[in-house]
Design a protein that fits this description.
The structure holds two protein chains of two kinds. Chain A is of the alpha/beta class. Chain A is built from ten helices and twelve strands. The termini of chain B are far apart. Classes of the chains: A alpha/beta, B alpha/beta. The structure holds adenosine-5'-triphosphate and magnesium ion (MG).
Chain lengths: 251, 425
Amino acid sequence: MSLLEIKDLHVDVGGKEILKGINLEIEAGKIHAIMGPNGSGKSTLSYTLSGREGYEVTSGSILFKGRDLTEMSIDERAAAGVFLAFQYPIEIPGVTNMTFLRTAVNAQRKARGESEMDAASFLRFVREKAAQLKVSDDMLKRPLNVGFSGGEKKRNEILQMALLEPSLAVLDETDSGLDIDALKVVSEGVNALRDPERAMLVITHYQRLLDHIVPDVVHVLANGRIIKTGGKDLALELEKSGYEGLIESAA
Amino acid sequence: MELNAFENSLLERADSARDRLPAWAEQLATAGAARFAQSGLPHRRLEAWKYTDLKSRLEAKRPEGAQGSRAAFHLGGALEVILTKEGMHTSAPLGEGVRIFPLNDALTKEPALLQKHMGTNKALQQDALTGLNTALMQDGFVLHLAQGVTLNRPIVLRVEVGEGEAPSFARNLIVLEEGASAVLIEDWAAPQSAPQLRHAVTEIMLADKASLAHVRVQDEKLEAAHLSLVAADLEAGAKYHQFALNVGAGLTRSETHVHLGGEGAHAELGGSFLLNGLQHCDTTTVVTHAVPNCTCREVFRGVMADRSRGVFQGKIAVAPHAQKTDAKMETRALLLSDRAEMDAKPELEIYADDVKCAHGATIGTLDEQSVFYLQSRGIPLPVARRMLIGAFVEDALDVVSDVDLQAALRAVIDQRLSRLEGVAG
Ligand SMILES: Nc1ncnc2c1ncn2[C@@H]1O[C@H](COP(=O)(O)OP(=O)(O)OP(=O)(O)O)[C@@H](O)[C@H]1O
Ligand SMILES: [Mg+2]
């Protein structure tokens, strides 16, 4: 059984069909990449997986670890191991990053019937992971994402992933807004989380990221459908020839 | 003006209560009763009561129901003062230059102090309800700090008076002489046998460079109406900080008048109201800049769940010669349900030309994107909403500078939030 099984998924957003029959299977331990033109439905797929309101599944199914994901609330999905690194992380004034991180980690532990972490052990845990991702103490103390630079926000997303240890991580354009050094730091962070039990779905526009995070499978999503699937070389091909030809031959 | 049965019963009570007062106070009481007899309870045709039709609201029955378990306000290291019908209990000696009396004691023991200040605040002189309060004043306290005295720890004051369910009229007087400084928390949390109507008038006199941090925590039972009127007079360089936390009572009026009467005086008013069910809470402030170079800040945060209603009326008045006034007023409200309501009426009345005055009022709902973000990290919906609402309220707490006091208030706020419709989980 695959970790994630999406069958003929149709999703409406704002009364308009955006995903038009997605089929996607991801096995544990694998990294899949999704590429595709702007507006093709990549973020829509990621939001649908995390259960965002307004993303209405009109037909098809999503099984995660054999469970029907569409029946679960947003936080239940998270506790079950689904994680989305946002394309545009949200700024929340008044809630410090640290408080947010501890609340999230403990909420998930609680949901799984594990004991909550006390403040001291949590601090050690965060400090260690934060250092690897070059997230400063200052960023931990500040209100969540408020005034963070684009790159800092993305590093903070990966920090959350490192702390929450999900079994399926969806990274929505985590490379956008990163400078060359930050791209390396983030990729190393992601690679450190590669695990036979953990799958990743990496959404990106650029081959560059896939040089660092090497995918097992690459999909092309266009106009709400996966129109081509291949190995890591597909990304290289796309870099050269663009989507146009592919979309025409799929139509 | 035709008075209704309730108004007449209040006046009758005033008549029979009057002879217990010393002669000077009896005069004030008689004048007060006469003022009330002229106009009766305020109603919505009066501009200041436009959104809170007190007269009809007091006639209507308020919803019953226990507030549920509340986190009692607790501040470690504070000096506790409890006023009961029998008298006053303090948890430790007050220290040199600090005096507190129950009002009834002060009426006979401190006539000079009371006569000097009581009823002198201009904001109170025309107010009919204050007239009634003067005629019926019984519960309440008097706090006096001598020149230069600094209270080394906060006073938490609880008023546990009132005869069963009968209306209670509290009259408080706070006088800080030159350079004195204090932190005073009034904790109004009533047991079930508390009065159905409480009216508290607090007169505050801050002499040159005196400083008072004043917190009011109100968590009365839901059937009760809690009406409070604070009037503060500030002389040169005096500082007055007020934080009003209103979470209880079916009907609340939290009214504050500040008169900045000496140069360099500074007022900071903040508050938070967290309402549920059919609760109605009206915050009304009037800050008058009577002389040049005074400053004021106002920050209010309201959270309305279910069918509750919040009101904010804030007025900043700047007298013609009060140049270099610096005043800022900001109120924000969060509606947690479609049926909740907020009315905000900020008002600037400026007669000077060299001033900085600003006001802002916003009414909104919880940001769905933020809720989703938190939930997507595994934080359950009620907890996520609570975190966001807590963060929203937080700005108002800045009015209180003491971190322990902030934490004590936050505890009451958190507890309250967990009981709001749509937030409880
Ligand atoms: N609320 C909405 N109502 C109508 N259409 C919407 C709504 N939200 C998104 N869409 C549309 O859905 C389509 C897919 O958007 P989505 O964000 O999934 O694209 P994407 O593939 O992630 O694009 P990008 O590469 O630019 O991030 C777009 O055409 C967008 O305009
Ligand atoms: Mg996108």
